[in-house]
Amino acid sequence: MTDEGFLYYAVGERWLREAARSASSLRRAMPQVSIAIVTDGAATPGLFDITVQPPAGIHVKSLKMWSMRNSPFARTVFLDTDTYVCDAVPELFRLLDRYPVAAAVTPYWTVGLFSNGAPIEDDAIPVSFPKLNSGVMAFRRGPDTDAFFAAWADRHAAAGYRQDQGPLRHTLYFSERRHAVLPAVYNYRLPYPVGVAGAVKIMHGHVHDLEGLAGRINRSMKWRVTTPVSKVARQIWYFVRRTKSRS
Questions:
Q1: 95 is in which domain, residue-wise?
Q2: Tens digit of pLDDT at every position of the chain (247 positions)
């Protein structure tokens, strides 16, 4: 098993092309890093070092957890295909010296936990326990971590293979696994407003020109609150404006 590397999974040509774009940005930022992909297609030669064929019969929504459980690396940074790596991130691997799993908080995550302003507990999980985004995850392989990913996959299947972040939150809360919470610069989740200081390292979202957007956001290293222009961001802004006008 190789010591460190990055991992993607992609099923279908569209997602394989998207993974290749992300991996190209990773290669520019970290030329010597090892990159693996779990895919049913033909990975770009010279871009991916390791290609893993997914097993037949596994639900595509469970393939993320299967890929993590079967990572060829002892220490892995998993990336969704719609990510863009702006800068080298060797510190994510160093974090795994102390924590077996690390991920960033999902923006806007509390919205689904409130009804008419009152907090809702999901399976007795307090609303103070955040939901983490699974699009950028660092983890250290081992029997306990593999069991954690299996439990997450089971919970995800029981929930009907919908978004995996709710089942991830549930599994983390009831697990004995320690985990670290990453700053937003390691998972700059588009299109939501984000406050950051220093360089954004990894961008994450379906935006046409991620490279250009990264350049604009990283023109300054000072503390800044950014609101990337997008349809969803405009919808949020209009909602807030209407709410204020009615109050």
A1: 2-246
A2: 679 999 999 999 999 999 999 999 999 999 999 999 999 989 888 899 999 999 888 888 889 999 999 999 999 999 999 999 999 999 999 999 999 999 999 987 766 666 555 566 667 888 888 899 999 999 999 999 999 999 999 999 988 878 898 899 999 999 988 999 999 999 999 888 888 999 999 999 988 888 888 888 899 899 988 876 555 555 544 454 555 455 4
The CATH code of the domain that includes 90 is 3.90.550.10
The candidate with the shortest Cα–Cα distance to 222, out of 188, 198, 194, is 198
- Say how many domains are in the chain: 1
